[in-house]
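In the lab's daily routine, each protein ends up as an entry in a very long ledger. A line of letters takes care of the sequence, but it says nothing directly about the fold. The three-dimensional part falls to structure tokens, numbers that each stand for a local backbone shape. The outcome of that step, for a single protein, is printed below.
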Amino acid sequence: MSDAPHIEALKAIAHPLRYSIIDALAKGDQNVGEIEGATGIGQPTLSQQLAVLRKAGLVETRRQAKLVYYSIDKDRAKTVLESLAFLGEPATGRSADKPERSKGAANFARLVT
């Protein structure tokens, strides 16, 4: 199934700890210590969650001296977001007959743009 990678990426984002990591990385590249400080997620949990995000292709790494910096893979995140096309374009205003949608996808969209 061609959608399986997108589903795995969405599952990765859906976890509260991983979502907070993605949220922290939306502010820019960070090393593990900076992510730990921003999220409050300690070791080894942080490393495990970063491994899941790497496997899903949502984060990239680069080495600078002894530190590894993580960043959002914006191309991959955009592809995953585009897989949610069935949600349609964000509305500029709410109609009285339309129920309010969850803000989860909208928050993810804001992170990758």
